[in-house]
Structures are given as structure tokens and as C-alpha cells.
Design goal:
- It is a single chain.
- The chain has a twelve-stranded antiparallel beta barrel.
- It is mostly beta strands and 236 residues long.
- The model has no long low-confidence stretch (mean pLDDT 92).
- It has one domain: Autotransporter beta-domain (Lipocalin, Beta Barrel), CATH 2.40.128.
- It is built from no helices and 13 strands.
Length: 236
């Protein structure tokens, strides 16, 4: 949660590529090269000490094979919502979050039934715990979410983050993202498990820079994604 009257903005860019996909049995198969560039501005603001507002516009551009067609897509998206604190003590916190995301296709060669970009409602429960190891601060975060997707199969999501300050001004983040998509008449059931490793360096108390890599480790009916991420964090 953000403190009342305080907030944070994180601007990230990602570049990923893929030339393999996981088939229905989870085995890697060749795929025409796919590339994607995305920029996201994620903002949080503490309206009260128990209510944090969320606003996250983003844009992306991709080119390559998506399902049975080749495409070059450009999208804008706006996501907004809020997080409510349910319970906390000195070291742990439980909260509930609800957001809605709406995409706008600027240019796409994918038929509507094959597009993964649709209106989405995301409901999730979050648990966070802080700790100290060897005199350094760390935290663990777990999130379980159900994402309703208009005209497409809904998704279950489970996200985990482990953070540890190796030195006071450097935060190491190890993150695991897991998705199980129900599928629809247009798309098969999909599942993927992604690992992301990044470092966040604090230049000042209010400004930080982030850099790292991510990759899809396992999946079903899904591209194997590999990419780089960079970002700038600021507090206000």
C-alpha cells in the first residue's frame, strides 16, 4: 500500500523475441520469429492509508507469427483500479485489488477472434511479508488472480516476488509469473510460467533505475518469450 498522499510511478520498456513455441504437450517447436516492444507507465497513489489508486497506460508494437497468421500489431491500453488493505501487522499485509483494462488497436492484422488483446477485469488477493537476513531488508509477495476476458477464455494467475537489498541502494528482484488460460472456441487452452530477474539501483531517495531479463521456462500452446526490461522509478 502507498501511504496517504504519497505515490510512485514506474516507467518500464520491454523488448522480447521468440522463435520457438510450446506445443500442446509442452515440447518446443520452431516458430517464425516474433518480436514485441512495449512501454508501460504504472502509477500508484495513496488516497488513504487503506486505499491505493492504480493507473497504468501502456503501448506495444509487435511483428511476427501469432497463431495461424502473421501480423504487425500496435496497441494502446489503459488499466485503472484500486487496492484495499484488508489486514496488516508489523511485518505482513493482506490486500485485495480490482482493475479493468481496455485496449485500443491502432493497427492489427489479426482477426478479432484470434486477438489476445480484449477488455479485461482483474480481481486478485495479495499477501506481502517483510524480513531481515544478515542485516539486510527483504520481502516476499504472493498474488492470486482471476482475470475475466471478454469473448476469450478467462485466466487464473499466480505471481510471486522475492526482493532483497544486497546493499542499501541495490534491490534484487526475483519474480515468477504463472498463467493458466481456459481457452475459447478460437484459442486453445494455454499455460505458461515465466521467470524474471532484475536489479533496481537507487540514485536518490526518490529516483531509481531498473534493468534485467525474463524468459518463459515452461508452457502449453504458447510462445517461448525471451526479453530485456528496463525502467525508471520515482516517488512523489
Amino acid at each position: 500500500m502507498q501511504e496517504e498522499g504519497q505515490g510512485q510511478i514506474i516507467v518500464t520498456t520491454t523488448f522480447e523475441r521468440s522463435d520457438r513455441f510450446f506445443d500442446a504437450s509442452g515440447k518446443l517447436q520452431p516458430l517464425a520469429q516474433y518480436r514485441k516492444f512495449e512501454m508501460t507507465t504504472y502509477a500508484e497513489y495513496g488516497a488513504t492509508d487503506w486505499l491505493t489508486l492504480i493507473f497504468a497506460p501502456s503501448s506495444s508494437q509487435s511483428a511476427g507469427s501469432i497463431g495461424p497468421v502473421d501480423s504487425a500489431d500496435r496497441y494502446l491500453r489503459v488499466e485503472a483500479g484500486a487496492r484495499i488493505r484488508v489486514w496488516r501487522n508489523d511485518h505482513s499485509i493482506v490486500s485485495f485489488q480490482a482493475t479493468f483494462r481496455a485496449p485500443y488497436a491502432i493497427d492489427t492484422g489479426v482477426p478479432p477472434g484470434l486477438r489476445r488483446e480484449v477488455n479485461e477485469a482483474d480481481l486478485r488477493a495479495l499477501y506481502g511479508h517483510s524480513f531481515q537476513v544478515f542485516g539486510r531488508a527483504g520481502f516476499f509477495n504472493a498474488e492470486l488472480a482471476w482475470r475475466a476476458r471478454a469473448g476469450m477464455g478467462d485466466e487464473w494467475r499466480a505471481d510471486f516476488t522475492l526482493g532483497y537489498r544486497i546493499v542499501p541502494r541495490f534491490l534484487l528482484l526475483l519474480q515468477n509469473f504463472n498463467v493458466s488460460a481456459q481457452g475459447s472456441s478460437f484459442m486453445p487452452h494455454q499455460r505458461w510460467h515465466k521467470l524474471q530477474v532484475t536489479g533496481v539501483f537507487d540514485f536518490t531517495e526518490k529516483w531509481s533505475v531498473q534493468a534485467g531479463i525474463y524468459a518463459t521456462l515452461l508452457g502449453v500452446n504458447m510462445r517461448r518469450e525471451q526479453g530485456f526490461i528496463g525502467g525508471i522509478w520515482t516517488k512523489f
